[in-house]
Design a protein that fits this description.
heterodimer, A: about 500 residues, mainly beta, about 45% strand, B: about 190 residues, mainly alpha, 7 helices, about 0% strand
């Protein structure tokens, strides 16, 4: 026993560290989450682009009727896309489909149809394969791509008071959660609040409008979609309907509806729904199925991926949340546990950084924290008092760092309460311009400038006035997009 | 005190023999309290908080250091000494108290690990070229949590040896475990009320 004990301890060390580090890397996270399916939708729901006895085509997937049930066959796989530098992604392409007799489905990514009289399309005939088709089928595909009025949709009545389904052909048993969904009209003291038809917030007292918010400070693309309250302030979910900036914000208004501040956003992601969890946490559901929790001043407390393709809506009863997706309803139960040290694990992922910029980090301590950095490119600028804690401001400088490589580091925060490690990362991006391809010109999606181009073989293009020694051009025939990349420090990598 | 040091020395060669030949109750209690007095400030400034089982089960964090220390000693007696008394009578309580110092030794080790991590290893982490959530978790697991886990287990092994040295009856051991868990739960509840 005495001889085996050191070996036992040695092996135990590896087992323990492996389990701890790889299964619970965020082990200090004070919130755990549990999801339960309340009910699963048997038939697909959502915005139907096309429907027949054999297929239902939704925006993001296709269902085929096989063996007396609807099977998700997905979209045809995308192949032959040029690999982009790290940190850049091709957009999801538009897809057109046509249903031929005999249970065959044709699908083509939209930009291909412009390239000639025939094109390679994906064919579903029990499995996805590739086939070259001519004008006749291409014409059919174009016709079917036009989005008809939605045949199934989800109605939000009032502010989250009820969710119901108006699809006549689908019978859905709405679970008995009436009590949970009730009483969601935000109230502060004697006032209630609602979104009026022109997208402003109204404050009502005894049914009479006593104040209306201003949209003067709002970008015209920002649309208010939901409002909630913590009993003191109003939190308004702003959806950005501009295609170029698909991100939303939460606007915080005081009870008089005068502007206060904007909090909470995620780069390149649109918020779907907002709710209160407990008394001091904002739950945000994002379009990629991520559920995040934020403090009332916008500090991220936790973030979980619920693995949903199409999250649609969320309501919270205070302690649990119901999340609706195109596949059913999930009951999500976040569970707080007291952390050993009062540390909120946070990760600062700044994404692509083209120019020097700043970001802030809130530290919930009244004494002056000691902050140190590990890694390149990020520097502490200042620490100042902010509300009940300290706000540290950092600068990110991508210059002189290799473009399109992930730069990772850590912000080490030491306070009287303990220490916190905040991993941070960014991708120095150089200069990136995104173009849409037309038959004779490229359109710069940001500046609106048009430039000439020509095909140079191998499916690549050359842009007028662009030197291949300095710049790199990436063309995607599937989405019809071009990225023009100028790496920093202005030398090809 | 000489007997206590002899027992400590024997702990590393034969733990069973060490608990079977304890020093006097008075000497053991005195040495145990001295160890607790050294361990407590180490825990207060270290990375393992005073709620670590080395000192007590769950002392409330809102108490002043002196009150927390008193609560910790009380919890120690309530959660271990009383179960020994319930299970084995006066002999059991006396046996635990005469091994009081040796049972605090792994607790001192825990306090030391937490202190070293906070004062040395954490500062080392800041200059090492490693970063990321997983790297941080590995570092913390190797240098803080695993040693703490081993010491906690070792402490319970010592308590087990003290118990089996008195009587190896499975039924009595079962009563000892149940009463320990029950009283620990009670003290945890009381700690929450304070």
């Amino acid at each position: 026993m005495r001889k085996t004990l050191p070996w036992l301890l040695f092996v135990g060390l590896f087992v323990f560290v492996a389990i701890y580090a790889f299964v619970f890397p965020e082990s200090q996270m004070p919130v755990r989450i549990r999801t339960d399916k309340v009910w699963t939708i048997e038939q697909p729901i959502g915005q139907r682009l096309f429907e027949s006895d054999d297929f239902i085509i939704l925006k993001n997937t296709v269902f085929a009727y096989l063996n007396d049930e609807w099977i998700d066959i997905g979209l045809p796989p995308i192949t032959d896309r040029v690999e982009l530098p790290y940190g850049l992604e091709w957009p999801e392409p538009a897809i057109a489909m046509a249903h031929a007799e005999g249970g065959t489905l044709y699908a083509v990514y939209s930009s291909l149809t412009r390239m000639g009289n025939s094109a390679e399309v994906a064919v579903w005939d029990g499995g996805w394969s590739r086939e070259t088709v001519d004008d006749d089928v291409l014409g059919l595909l174009k016709l079917c791509a036009s989005p008809e009025p939605v045949s199934a949709e989800i109605l939000k009545v009032g502010i989250k008071s009820k969710i119901r389904w108006n699809e006549e052909t689908i019978e859905i048993d709405t679970p008995d959660i009436t009590g949970s969904w009730a009483n969601k009209v935000p109230t502060v003291r004697e006032y209630t609040y609602q979104i009026n038809d022109d997208g402003r917030i109204e404050r009502l007292k005894d049914g009479i409008v006593t104040a209306v918010s201003s949209r003067d400070e709002l970008n015209p693309f920002l649309v208010q979609t939901e409002i909630i309250s913590d009993g003191e302030s109003i939190y308004v979910l702003l959806e950005n309907r501009s295609e170029d900036e698909p991100e939303g914000w939460v606007q915080v208004l005081n009870r008089d509806l005068s502007h206060n501040e904007f909090i909470v956003t995620r780069h390149n992601h649109q918020p779907v729904s907002v709710a209160m969890w407990g008394e001091d946490t904002l739950l945000m559901l994002w379009d990629d199925g991520v559920l995040s929790g934020y403090s009332m001043w916008g500090q991220e407390k936790f973030s979980f991926n619920l693995c949903l393709d199409q999250p649609l809506d969320m309501v919270s009863t205070g302690s649990v949340a119901y999340v609706l997706s195109d596949r059913g309803l999930l009951l999500v139960s976040p569970t707080a546990r007291k952390s050993r040290i009062d540390v909120w694990p946070r990760i600062k992922m700044l994404g692509l950084v083209e120019e020097p910029q700043e970001f802030t980090l809130f530290i919930g301590t009244e004494s002056m924290p000691v902050i140190q950095m590990k890694g390149n490119g990020i520097q502490l600028i200042q620490i100042m008092g902010y509300k009940d804690g300290m706000l540290a401001t950092f600068s990110v400088n991508p210059d002189e760092l290799p473009s399109f490589s992930r730069v990772a580091g850590e912000i080490l925060v030491e306070t009287e309460e303990g220490h916190e490690v905040v991993p941070c990362s960014f991708i120095p991006s150089g200069l990136v311009r995104e173009f849409k391809v037309f038959s004779d010109v490229l359109l710069d999606l940001e500046s609106g400038e048009m430039v000439n181009y020509e095909f140079v073989g191998d499916g690549q293009i050359s842009i007028d006035g662009i030197s291949p020694e300095i710049h790199k051009v990436y063309f995607d025939h599937i989405s019809g997009k071009v990225f023009l990349v100028t790496p920093k420090p202005f030398s090809p990598h | 005190m000489k007997e206590v040091f002899l027992q400590f020395k024997m702990l590393f060669s034969s733990p069973r023999f060490a608990v079977s030949n304890p020093p006097s109750v008075g000497g053991s209690l005195l040495a145990g309290v001295i160890i607790l007095l050294i361990s407590f400030p180490l825990l207060l400034v270290g990375s393992l908080s005073s709620s670590t089982v080395s000192i007590s089960v769950f002392p409330p964090s809102t108490l002043s250091p002196i009150s927390a220390f008193a609560f910790a000693v009380l919890t120690q007696l309530m959660c271990i000494c009383v179960p020994f008394f319930i299970t084995y009578g006066v002999d059991g309580a006396r046996s635990y108290l005469s091994n009081f110092a040796i049972i605090q030794l792994p607790g001192f080790g825990l306090a030391l690990v937490g202190f070293l991590y906070q004062e040395i290893f954490w500062h080392l982490y800041r200059i090492l070229p490693i970063s990321g959530l997983t790297a941080n978790a590995i570092y913390e697991a190797v240098l803080l949590l695993y040693p703490a886990l081993v010491l906690v287990l070792f402490r319970y092994i010592l308590i087990w040896k003290v118990a089996t040295d008195i009587d190896q009856s499975p039924w009595r051991l079962f009563i000892l475990i149940i009463s320990h868990l029950g009283l620990s739960g009670l003290m945890w509840y009381l700690g929450g009320l304070i």
